[in-house]
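[09:14] KT: can someone run the structure on this one? pasting the chain below
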Amino acid sequence: ALAKGALRRRVMSWYSRFNDERWSDCYALIDPSLASSGKVNAEAYTHSLRNFRSRYGTIRPWHVRISLHLTGSRPTSDSRPFAYVYTVWQDDRHEFHMFRERWVQEGKNWYTRVAGLVLNEATFNQAG
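[09:31] RB: done, structure tokens below
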């Protein structure tokens, strides 16, 4: 229960940072192993968030479901505790979407493994 609460606060903090266009603060919540290895470039990350924000506007979470995996089998060679976070959210056009994100725990903190946000042009064009 403690881990879920801490992760939920961390996830909601990311959405708040995104909505306030605090890109470097969003980047600070990326898995340190992705950032330090150069797999996630801060400039490219910021560009993807900025484009997503300009297309969809703010992210208003309606429901967040967390599936914790603190022990047991791991999907990769990564031995850290992880979780899948499913967020149903609404954009500025009042349309609903869902994110499925993987978060990992390093030390006492949780970090996202999402390296950027991608526009779903097919969905947007159909709705537009």
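[09:33] KT: thanks! Residues 88 and 98 are 4 Å apart (CA to CA).
[09:34] RB: yep, looked fine to me
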